[in-house]
Amino acid sequence: MSIQKTDFLVIGSGIAGLTYALKVADRFPDKKVLVLTKATADETNTKYAQGGIAVVNDLENDSFAKHIEDTLIAGDGLCNEKIVEIVVKEGPERVNEIIEWGARFDKEADGDFKRGKEGGHSESRILHHKDITGWEMERALISAVERQKNIEFVKHCFVVDILTQHHRGYLVTKSTPDIECYGVYVLNLNTNKIEKILAKTTLLATGGNGQVYRTTTNPAIATGDGVAMTYRAKGKIENMEFIQFHPTALYEPGVTGQAFLITEAVRGDGGILRNKHSEAFMEKYDERKDLAPRDIVARAIDSEMKRTGTEHVWLDCRHFDVEKFKEHFPNIYDKCLSIGIDIAKNMIPVSPAAHYSCGGIKTDERGRSSIRNLYACGECASTGLHGANRLASNSLLEAMVFAHRCSVDASETVNNISFREDLPDWNARGTSEPREMILITQSLKELQLVMSDYVGIVRNDVRLQRAIRRLDLLWEETEELYRSSVVSPQLLELRNMITVGYLIVKEAMFRKESRGLHYNTDYPEKSPLVQNIVL
Fold first, then answer.
1. Same fold yes or no, 3-241+358-416 and 243-355
2. Phi-psi category of 343—alpha, beta or left, where left has phi over 0 and alpha has psi -120 to 50?
């Protein structure tokens, strides 16, 4: 069995993983940094982030206090105020770093940054690169990584599980003190062999889990792998019930899977949501109208769709200056035109789609998970910043701030950690190739239907109970298939997505209230007891 050793193991190649890799590689030029990605280096959630990054770098017109307050309001009582202050105040330095690494944000004629405004923000503070900000940041980071000689990329490499004391024959439970991470088992898709990677420190930067839903703005790789692996390793997971549905994904009849995102910045520039009767309806739901936080806008659209019996609403941009729209949103303009929508003449059909997980692997202010030597940052982590609802464009900022914090802590501890050699090789005895791929593909369709129909924007106890019963059956069937089959990426992703779906439903069942992104019609009011749900 192939065995590798590395001082710093990074799982995921989005903004969180690459920022961390650059920092530890620069700090320790003599140590190896290994970055694993299950697809190509740039196929990440970061790449699809359109709107931009929220940061206070214009203190004449904005302030840290305002950004903090906006974040706390959006988070609906569940944000960790200390973490919010850390991210907002450390954010400008992290943004300056990525600019130094080569990221290009749009500027005015006088050289100052162009700053957009999005839902929930009291000031214009969103830096952007046209409507492909994430792509531009990812480009800059990959370019910087390629200049670092001690960073090794391994593409098409699927992490199967985290190695802990469990693999040394010890009983590990949620109450086991000092669970340790020793590395991972990985499926090398180039050789189709399971390999063992031993690591002194491991960072999970595996992104989101939008693929558990039928329609999502996330790419196909967003299958919740890091959260599922950590849960199986008995690490703590929190707030998974808070799934953010982006209000305005492009509606295309018959299209499921990854939906094209119409960034919130379009509404920030003056786009107006209208129902099938051409009525501007947001004023009925919130005084901030189209610039209300995402949870409110998504529920309002869902309500209008159900009330009028339609599958979408409209985003009206016909009053925009077309040339300015094309300059700021060239990809949106081209996409709409490609399906026959001229934004100067036609409104854009939009509907909500699963977009972002506010919960995830519970971490502390240094990015440490509950498992020793295992860090998490980016969308797979629950740092305490987002609470019950993420403020628009805070995610890229959080990823950079916590990648830095993880790198500082890992750098302080790595020399005190030894490799654990007494770990078994992967045991595939008794397994065979699956005879029918339909056993996997059909279970995936069932999972996505259950989550979309029962655990969407609006929930109730009956739907959640139905969902958990169906997920229990899917879990039993998939675990049996996993025990008897040679592992494949499709089977591993299905297994992870069922686990993530279970966590979303279970934590939704525990929350007997409506708060932020979790709205249960059986408990429409907020509970006076403000708490995070941890599994």
1. no
2. alpha
User: Cα torsion for 495, 18, 79, 451, to the nearest 10°?
Assistant: -20
181: which 2 tokens?
């991470």
Mind listing the pLDDT tens digit for each residue in 136-152? 999 999 999 999 999 99
Report the alpha-carbon distance of residue 409 to residue 373 in Å, rounded. 10
CATH 3.40.47.10 fits 3-241+358-416, yes or no: no
Alpha carbons 5 and 265: distance in angstroms, whole number = 44
Annotated catalytic sites, by residue? 294
Distance CA 259, CA 252 (A): 8
Please provide the distance, in angstroms rounded to a whole number, between the alpha carbons at the two ends of the chain: 34
**What are the residue ranges of helices labelled H in 101-195?**
133-146
Could you write out the DSSP letters of every residue in 280-325? Answer: B-GGGT-TTGGGS-HHHHHHHHHHHHHHHT-S-EEEE-TTS-HHHH
Q: What is the CA radius of gyration of the chain?
A: 22
- CA atoms lying within 13 Å on the CB side of residue 246: 32
The pTM is what? 0.93
User: Do 494 and 447 form a contact (C-beta atoms < 8 A)?
Assistant: yes
Q: What are phi and psi of 338, to 5 degrees?
A: -65, -20
Domain 243-355 indexed as CATH 3.90.700.10: yes
Residue with tokens 């890229």: 396
Contact call for residues 520 and 505 (beta carbons, < 8 A): no
Q: Are 250 and 261 in contact (CB under 8 A)?
A: yes
pLDDT tens by residue, 383-401: 999 999 999 899 999 999 9
- Residue in the structure block whose two tokens are 């620069």: 26
Place of tokens 């200056």: 321
